[in-house]
Amino acid sequence: MHKLVSPQFSVMKLLKDFCDLYLELGTVSSNWPVADNSPVVRKVGDPFHSVGSNRKASSDQALKGKASKPCRFSNFHNLVNVQQGTTAIDVKKSIKKLNDITKGSENVQISLIAEVGNDDIPKFTYMPQNIIYQNACMQISLARIADEDCCSGCSGDCLSHQLPCACARETRGEFAYTQQGLLTQEFLRESVSTKRDPHIKNFVFCQEYCPLERYKKCKGHLVRKFIKECWMKCGCDMNCGNRIIQRGITCNLQVFLTHEDKGWGVRTLNDLPEGTFVCEYVGEILTNTELYDRNMQNSGSDRHTYPVTLDADWGSERVLRDDEALCLDATFSGNVARFINHRCNDANLIDIPVQVETPDRHYYHLAFFTTREVRAFEELTWDYGIDFDDHDHPIKAFQCCCGSASCRDLKGRRSSTAER
Ligand SMILES: C[S@@+](CC[C@H](N)C(=O)[O-])C[C@H]1O[C@@H](n2cnc3c(N)ncnc32)[C@H](O)[C@@H]1O
Q1: What atom of ligand 1 comes closest to residue 343's alpha carbon?
Q2: Does the keyword Cytoplasm apply (predicted)?
Q3: Does 345 contact ligand 1 (Cβ within 6 A)?
Q4: Judging by DSSP bridges, how do beta strands 131-132 and 284-287 pair with one another?
């Protein structure tokens, strides 16, 4: 305290500021969506938890802050970084937050909060569903859905019937979802192992022309297992257990500024069981040529990149035309998934291709499911499948700081070890 020089300094005022901040944060947290409408009960480790003796410990620590180092309110668990001499009111002003980045367009609100750092609120248009940018060829029409590609004879909930419906054909006659609305363990394990340990036999190579590499040799595309959900022409209803991703986001998610050099990230505010659908990757539907042109125009200007290639079934049917080789770009417009960061090999989400409106597999939805139980406030991550040594890939690599023991970016791993 003897280092605080302001003549107006008063312990009472500091404590009052501290209490104001605490109350304000309590108010913010109670505005957030809570799954079961029960009173908000916060756990230890939760940024808003502050009970009994912990409260004293944090205020003690705030008062003891060292002169040159930022002082951290330990009880607020990385919530605020306070330089000595700043009051709690200043801190309150420096926390950036938005209550709902979706602007009411999703089933749930998704908040954004910057507890550390000083990054600007990201500029992009929130959209809950993919939309064609310009040239992408997607033929969505009921006439193109053959009888064997839907279950028009069903009613109610397909999962409650004795035999799986026609839509389960894609998943070897078994539904990919359980009655509880989770991905089945078998489907999850198979998808995770194909992605983590891809075997050469799981790759297809474009013979003549690779839409991704353009005039270079194809490096191969991993063939993935698809889910086929029931849809419009099916006889079942909207609550059918084989319609999970089309019902939208139900998890309590939050965008936050990460501590590492990754920019913004996404975390869950509730525990999520293994196999939970979190959200899909939404963006503008572009042809790879359009993506290439965008990259040329914006080359080097953006720190982060947001496209994903929809190549989970390239080459299995026929050579794709240029306007059929598609990707999703969430740079300018997208949903919460545009903030999910990459983690090498042991990410807690997996991206799974899901067919909904069209039997063609050159367009599909990319849906994220948890690979294991995820605890509240853990950051959500998925493996972008990046080859960190491939510098001319249209999806630009970055210096990875995922922190995984099996990080594939050896250069990134070396420099973060050196920093330590
Ligand atoms: C789809 S965005 C993810 C959201 C991004 N962090 C943001 O602030 O908007 C992908 C970008 O995030 C950054 N990023 C994602 N995962 C990362 C990681 N493991 N290490 C470093 N940067 C990462 C990279 O800049 C990458 O181009």
Answers
A1: 19
A2: no
A3: no
A4: parallel
